[in-house]
Structure formats: structure tokens, C-alpha cells
From TrEMBL:
<feature type="transmembrane region" description="Helical">
    <location>
        <begin position="58"/>
        <end position="77"/>
    </location>
</feature>
<dbReference type="InterPro" id="IPR007274">
    <property type="entry name" value="Cop_transporter"/>
</dbReference>
<keyword id="KW-0812">Transmembrane</keyword>
<protein>
    <recommendedName>
        <fullName>Copper transport protein</fullName>
    </recommendedName>
</protein>
<comment type="similarity">
    <text>Belongs to the copper transporter (Ctr) (TC 1.A.56) family. SLC31A subfamily.</text>
</comment>
<keyword id="KW-0186">Copper</keyword>
<keyword id="KW-0813">Transport</keyword>
<keyword id="KW-1133">Transmembrane helix</keyword>
<keyword id="KW-0472">Membrane</keyword>
<keyword id="KW-0406">Ion transport</keyword>
<keyword id="KW-0187">Copper transport</keyword>
<dbReference type="GO" id="GO:0016020">
    <property type="term" value="C:membrane"/>
</dbReference>
<dbReference type="Pfam" id="PF04145">
    <property type="entry name" value="Ctr"/>
</dbReference>
<dbReference type="GO" id="GO:0005375">
    <property type="term" value="F:copper ion transmembrane transporter activity"/>
</dbReference>
Amino acid sequence: MDHAAHAAMGHGDMDHGGHGGMDDMCSMSSAGDGKMLFTWDTKNLCIVFRQWHIRSTAGLVFSLIAVVFLAMGYEALRALSRSYEASINKRVLSVPRQSQGQVSKRGHVVKSVFYGLQNFYAFMLM
């Protein structure tokens, strides 16, 4: 169906969600061969999600600071995971041999959850 027929059906002046036009779309800087390039462009950049849309220099600076804090949160999660693993290892060694398997199993479940969270967080940061 061509555009004229679409307009004739009564959809010509219908609001399609207020997308803001082509000038307000997220752009992606690339080298033309699919590789992403670093950019300081402050217009129409999207970080992580389309909703994290940068439209100004202040927005870019705020976003850079937010990404640093997100990375700090990831490192804090890794430190917490290592600390938990060390405490579980001490606890396993301190209980009688018959109970070590039970404590170890619970520890492995929690360590698995930490591992899953770390991977999710890492992929989100990429």
C-alpha cells in the first residue's frame, strides 16, 4: 500500500506515538564496517537502553558519571562475592567432616547466584 492510500484510509493525521521525528533518534557511530567508534557527540546518543537518550553535553557528562558508578557497583558485587566465598571456605573447614557437604552445597548455590548476577551486570555494562 502506498502512502497516499494509507492517508486516504484516515490514518494520515494519526499520531503514531510521538517519536519526535527523525532528528530525535538514537544514532550509532560506526566505522562503516560494523565496528563501533568512541565518540564525544552529545546529540542523539543512547547508552545501554533507548530510554537512556543523551541530547546535550550535560546529559553526556551525567551519563559518564553514572557509568562510572555502575562500574563501581559491579566491582562492589565482585568484592562481596569473593568475601562470601572466603567466609564459606572458612565455615566448611570449621564444621565437622560429616556436615561439610551440607554447608558446602548451600555455599555453592549462593555462589552460583552471585556468578549469575555478575554476568548479567557485566553484559549490561558492555
